[in-house]
């Protein structure tokens, strides 16, 4: 049975309250993690500071693998922000997905289990790559390097590619997270159907939620990696 989101209307306009609230919660969690882990920083990091520095260094590694070393610091914070938001969004619904009382309406899910959210994230990411490309190279050099090289014949394909990048970046993330939540819901509904099935469902739920932790992290990694690849194509001049 497919769960429906909690829809409310404001001034006659329908809003997905589930997605809105979960997105706000994601932002609060990300801010809280960074704020808590960055208090009382020390030269010799330990405990919570180690956690934050590990994530910062990990994202910096992603950026440096795709962007010229001299420009890494310019885009590091961008990559870190997207990574944290996507990671927390993924885990919020996958790892905590426990259905005790099956219902047609879902009040708790990953924001990234909604295609509008993932496509919006992808669109923002692609728009930012164009913005930084224009800022770094100027309009003329940006257009030539991004759309006219290695040959002007590829211009129509390059333009179409910008739209396909949004679709593939957004739908890849959505598909993985949505499929994970559907499977977790099916397992939970199986356990709720009878005591015998509940015994079988508990280990399956634990195993899949553990796997979901890995999936959520991998999808955040892939999203930021592809974003940095697209960004590198816009900010770096292509040699003839």
Order of helical and strand elements: EEEHHHEHHHH
Sheet-strand content, in percent, reads 5-15%
Gyration radius from CA atoms, angstroms: 21 Å
What fraction, in percent, of the residue positions are helical?
Answer: over 70%
The structural class is mainly alpha
- Which word captures the global form? globular
Based on the model shown, name its key terms.
single chain; 240 residues; mainly alpha; two-stranded parallel sheet; two-stranded antiparallel sheet; 7 helices; 4 strands
Report what the structure shows.
With 240 residues, the chain is mostly helical. The chain has one domain (4-235). It is 73% helix and 5% strand. It has helices spanning 17-37, 48-66, 72-94, 115-137, 139-147, 155-193, 195-235, and strands at residues 4-5, 7-10, 13-16, 105-106. Strands 1-4 form a two-stranded parallel sheet. Strand 2 and strand 3 (13-16) form a beta hairpin.
């Amino acid at each position: 049975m497919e769960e429906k989101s909690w829809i409310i209307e404001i001034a006659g306009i329908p809003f997905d309250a589930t997605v809105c609230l979960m997105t706000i919660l994601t932002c609060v969690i990300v801010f809280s993690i960074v704020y808590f882990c960055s208090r009382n920083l020390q030269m010799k990091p330990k405990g919570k500071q180690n956690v934050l520095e590990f994530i910062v260094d990990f994202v910096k590694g992603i950026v440096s693998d795709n962007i010229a070393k001299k420009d890494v610091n310019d885009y590091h914070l961008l990559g870190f922000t997207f990574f944290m938001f996507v990671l927390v969004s993924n885990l919020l619904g996958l790892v905590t997905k426990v259905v005790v009382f099956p219902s047609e309406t879902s009040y708790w899910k990953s924001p990234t289990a909604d295609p509008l959210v993932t496509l919006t994230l992808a669109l923002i990411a692609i728009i930012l790559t164009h913005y930084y490309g224009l800022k770094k190279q100027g309009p003329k050099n940006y257009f030539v390097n991004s759309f006219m090289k290695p040959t002007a014949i590829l211009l129509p394909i390059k333009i179409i590619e910008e739209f396909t990048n949004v679709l593939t970046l957004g739908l890849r993330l959505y598909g993985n997270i949505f499929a994970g939540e559907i499977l977790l819901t099916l397992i939970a509904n199986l356990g709720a159907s009878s005591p015998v099935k509940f015994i079988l469902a508990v280990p399956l739920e634990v195993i899949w939620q553990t796997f979901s932790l890995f999936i959520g992290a991998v999808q955040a990694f892939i999203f930021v990696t592809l974003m940095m690849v697209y960004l590198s194509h816009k900010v770096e001049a292509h040699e003839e």
